[in-house]
């Protein structure tokens, strides 16, 4: 019988920090999540989590508040971000962990990405207008709040205006890749995304790696500087998890996992902490924590 890949031991040569129940992929109202950082951390604490990665799209706006809330609950927060990188046919997302979020170069790179989002969003709205599906900018701004605005906010505004029955329908009919109101935005190459993360002292991890759908592309992203793969994810099947684990082992890659939860009011309300992640994953991950983070966050 072949050994159970999930039962693999943590690498023994690394100092281990104790780690409990974890979720390393979470969105807040700083981007397209529905919980504020404080609400998210409260919810995570109520579910017994002890280590969180806050990974909003193109912004670290929620990190400071999450870290402060984490202190109150005795729960550690890893400063993170999620960057979308370009591939001709699919979305390649890179998670950045242990980033020095105050880093001015990081902040100017993120500001530029958010600017490109704004340009893209405006073009989507024009396309929707042409399709006779107008979306009110004031409503859209009210929905997205001060955070990094994205297609889920546009989808929510479309549902509110009666243009679609659900956000998924809005994506399926209009906003998804190749649909009538789709606009691609200027995107980073995977290696550029990895470089931005590494320059801020962070570790780049290929998000929802099974959704990439191509071993070739996964290998390219690794060659471009990704230090790890998000193996455990709410959209991954057990078979995908097993294949990714064996790739990670072959290539000595870091393994991470998270729900990618966007909160209870989102279209796909995956509960925080609902992806089962073996303890060795958190331990091996924490073994890579930089000194400054350990000093700042160790209990
Ligand atoms: P954006 O970053 O603005 O391009 O929007 C991408 C985000 O939209 C993703 O990170 C998901 O949160 C969400 N999303 C993508 N596809 C769908 C879909 N089919 N249904 C609902 N949400 C989606
Ligand atoms: Zn999102
Ligand atoms: Fe993603
Ligand atoms: Fe995500």
Descriptive labels:
single chain; 299 residues; alpha/beta; TIM Barrel; seven-stranded mixed beta sheet; 7 strands; 42% helix; disordered N terminus; binds adenosine monophosphate; binds zinc ion; binds fe (iii) ion
Would you write up a description of this structure?
A seven-stranded mixed β-sheet has the order 1-2-3-4-5-6-7. The chain has helices spanning 37-46, 63-73, 104-130, 137-144, 151-160, 167-175, 190-199, 209-212, 215-223, 238-250, 279-286, 291-297, and strands spanning 21-26, 49-54, 76-85, 92-97, 203-206, 228-233, 254-258. The protein is an alpha/beta fold. The protein has a domain at 19-111 and 185-297: Metal-dependent hydrolases (TIM Barrel), CATH 3.20.20. The protein is globular. The site of adenosine monophosphate has 12 residues, from helix 5 and helix 6.
SS-based structural class?
Answer: alpha/beta
What percentage of amino acids are in beta strands?
A: 5-15%
Order of SSEs: EHEHEEHHHHHEHHEHEHH
As for the CATH topology of the domain at 19-111 and 185-297, it is TIM Barrel
* Bound compounds: adenosine monophosphate, zinc ion, fe (iii) ion
Count of DSSP H/I helices: 12
Biggest sheet, spatial arrangement of strands: 1-2-3-4-5-6-7
CATH level-4 homologous superfamily of the domain at 19-111 and 185-297 = Metal-dependent hydrolases
Could you give a short account of the major beta sheet?
A: 7 strands, mixed
